Amino acid sequence: HLSQRLQLVAKYVPARAFLADIGSDHAYLPVNLALNQRIKRAIAGEIVSGPYENARREIERFDLSSMVVARQADGLAAIKSAEKVDVISICGMGGASICQILTAGWEQLKKFARWPRLILQPNVGSMEVRCWLQAHSYQIIAEEILEEDGHIYEIIVADPGKSQQLLTDQQLLFGPFLLAHKDLTFQKKWSLEIKKLKRVLVQLHRAQIEPLAKEQQLQQKIKIIEGVLNDKG
Ligand code: SAM
């Protein structure tokens, strides 16, 4: 059974796709999609031996080795040059790691006749991910936000193509689709963020060693978030 988070990721994998799930750990996502006949083929890429063995075991357990292959590799190196994957998913890591994997694989990605869809689920640092996408001619086509087991997760889906307009700083920070909806989970995430920033401010005050600029920066950020949360338009 897939977590709600990975179910939402799965929703954006087109039917009959060839999927590369990078940082797959147990390969839960590709195995579930293959079991449900939702995909044609999949690669489960993993850099670390333990998780790679988990992936292999899971694939064997369901007798799926004709459809899903586990490869121990760093990032997109799990994809061979002749393999025309339709979708790359990278889930459950920080935004910086996701961007690092995409940047390292960019030369390879660029060569695709049809660039794959990217489904990214950064645990933190989603702004960095949106900036990367915009700088590399990917357009965000959908976003999801959900809470599961006390964590709030964001999912960003992007297809190749430049959008007419560049994303604003606000859209990059909050997510263009998430910002347009501002659903309850979104409100909760950013209310928590304000609380966190305010705690940092108090600590800075107590320490009295931080430069004023840092304090102003935090106050500015709190103002921006409050502005978004209070704007009901
Ligand atoms: N994608 C699964 C999910 O969302 O449930 C597993 C997430 S797990 C927290 C992150 C996995 O990414 C770890 O198993 C880690 O070893 C792997 N990983 C981190 N950097 C990687 C890289 N450069 N290439 C391949 N795998 C990587």
Automatic annotation (TrEMBL):
For this UniProt record, the keywords arranged alphabetically read as follows:
Methyltransferase, Transferase
Coiled-coil stretches, from where to where? none
Task: Cite the InterPro entries for this sequence.
Answer: SAM-dependent_MTases_sf, TrmK
Pfam families found in the cross-reference section: TrmK
| SUPFAM superfamilies, A to Z | S-adenosyl-L-methionine-dependent methyltransferases (SSF53335)
- The source's domain of life comes to Bacteria
What biological-process terms (Gene Ontology) are attached? methylation
GO MF annotation terms: tRNA (adenine(22)-N1)-methyltransferase activity
Q: Which PANTHER family match?
A: TRNA (ADENINE(22)-N(1))-METHYLTRANSFERASE
Q: Which named protein is this? A: S-adenosyl-L-methionine-dependent methyltransferase
Source species: Liquorilactobacillus vini DSM 20605
